[in-house]
Amino acid sequence: MANLQHDSKFLEETGGIAAIVHEVAGIRDAELAGGEVKRMVAVADVKGLERLLQDPNWRVRVHAVRGLGEIGDARTIAPLIQSLMDRHEKVRVAANRALRRLGAHYEKIAGFS
Question: Can you give the pTM of this predicted structure?
Fold first, then answer.
């Protein structure tokens, strides 16, 4: 009985079963996107990753930002800067980290560090 009460309270707090299903689907979409991002990074498909930055799922956008950071060439800078204004904090944080790594990389190449 206690578990049933706990489960009912959990469903009420999370918005019910529909919210849980939506969350699980979002995680699954992000997992699928993660595999796609790996393939895009392997061939340096910056345009494909830019398209993923428009995905409504923030987890997919985080994968795309990380992929752009892994590619790390000059073509990735503009979409990473754009991602600093994303509506989700985790996307913005990932973009900030990627840009900091790129900045350090370019400073080293230019002989500034």
Answer: 0.72
Interatomic CA distance for residues 103 and 81, integer angstroms = 12
Per-residue model confidence as pLDDT tens digits over 54-78: 999 899 999 999 999 999 998 999 9
Give, for 69, the enclosing helix (H) or strand (E). helix 58-71
Contact 30, 63 (CB under 8 A): yes
- The reported pLDDT for the residue numbered 22 is 45
> What sign does the dihedral 79-81-85-88 (CA atoms) show?
positive
Domains and CATH numbers, the chain: 2-110 (1.25.10.10)
Rounded distance, CA 47 to CA 99, Å? 18
Q: Which residues contact 37 (CB under 8 A, 6 or more apart)?
A: 49, 52, 63, 64, 66, 67
C-alpha distances out from residue 22 to 1, 57, 109, Å: 27, 11, 45
- Please, are residues 33 and 60 in contact by the beta-carbon 8 Å criterion? yes
| Percent above pLDDT 90 for the chain | 50
